Amino acid sequence: MATNPLHYTTPGLDEATAQKVVELLQGRLHACNDLHLTLKHVHWNVVGPHFIAVHEMIDPQVDTVRGFADDLAERIATLGGSPQGTPGSLVQARTWDDYSIGRATTQEHLGAVDVLYRGVITSYREGITALEELDPVTQDMFIAQTEQLELFHWFVRAHLEDSSGRLSTENAETEVEGSRAVG
Prior knowledge:
mainly alpha; two-stranded parallel sheet; DNA starvation/stationary phase protection protein; DPS_DNA-bd
């Protein structure tokens, strides 16, 4: 991920460290922008008997994740970086496939969203580990956002587990596999 040189940063961080932190923040910014748009897409495209429950469950997640993106971008600027929030920068930098499921049942979308959340949460946790020595302030932000993402993930997974606690998506590795696993 190409980044612009920093001309200043926050007191107590050297520019090399701040640059590493900005790169981690930018990765999460792209992920959150992608996630809130994908969740809104799901919100618009769910159908079936549980439509209203899932439709209404997703919107607060969209709003919260959109807020995360704003917080991440503002932290980048605070550290002297320039947040990249354009669609082109997101598409160019992302390392994951675009969400490919259109109009589908609530269960199919939730199976796909389960896999989606797994990827986002895993990358946040990797960032938390990387930030341990770099910047505890940004690490705290990642921890707080991860807590919320894990809660949302639990909301999704509650629709996908049976009475023994087994997830229908336990072996799914892609969104399409997650979508198909619920059938």
